[in-house]
Write a structure and sequence with these properties.
By secondary structure, the chain is mainly α. It is built from six helices and five strands. The protein has one domain. The longest helix has 20 residues. The radius of gyration is 16 Å and the shape is globular.
Length: 197
């Protein structure tokens, strides 16, 4: 991922972070904290800083969250405290694909927070999950502080495909690999979030 090239310094503030974006490009992989903070700030900006969930640094499996102890290989939105949690091993898994893959996960969970805050598509079905994938794709395209290049897009698509499943009768079914790939790709090519509804 690269930081957008801007002529002047831009200050973006959120309730939990403040950082400066400068005019230097970053060619290497970002640190996970930078990915999480940048995606959070960018999506909060898109939503006009309304209904902003908290986002916590990666938590080890067994660590405390607002909903339940963190389980291994997990990221989730907790309705009870309107917060996003991600496990440390999920971060490591995402980085098998690259830093953009982690941005996709953060965007997906932020989408669940917005589904809850605005009361749309909350039935916890695979349709809800695919909509969150699509919105994550839209967020990644629309965030003002990050540019996703073709390599980043391939990372995102590879992760989306790899975490798809065929357990269509399971309550945990999030969509098949082709469905998840298609949903995030639609979002990344959309000019408006309504493409995800």
């Amino acid at each position: 991922m690269k930081i957008n090239i801007v002529k002047t310094l831009v200050l973006i503030s959120t309730p939990i972070i403040s950082f400066i974006i400068n005019n230097e490009s970053i060619a290497q992989e970002w640190h996970p904290d930078a990915v999480i903070q940048s995606m959070y700030a960018g999506v909060a900006y898109i939503h006009g800083y309304k209904a902003i969930p908290r986002v916590y640094r990666p938590i080890p499996p067994g660590g405390r969250t607002g909903c339940a102890p963190m389980i291994a290989m997990n990221a989730f939105y907790c309705k009870l405290d309107h917060s996003i949690y991600i496990s440390t091993d999920m971060v490591k898994f995402a980085y098998r694909y690259g830093d953009a893959a982690l941005a996709y996960i953060i965007g997906h969970e932020y989408a669940h927070a917005m589904q809850n805050a605005y009361g749309f598509n909350q039935n916890n079905s695979h349709i809800t999950e695919l909509q969150a994938d699509c919105l994550s794709g839209f967020y990644m395209k629309a965030v003002p502080n990050i540019v996703f290049d073709q390599r980043d897009i391939r990372e995102i698509q590879a992760l989306a495909y790899s975490i798809g499943d065929h357990n269509v009768w399971s309550r945990q079914h999030h969509g098949t690999p082709p469905q998840r790939l298609k949903a995030v790709t639609i979002g990344m090519s959309a000019s408006h979030p309504s493409a995800c509804f």
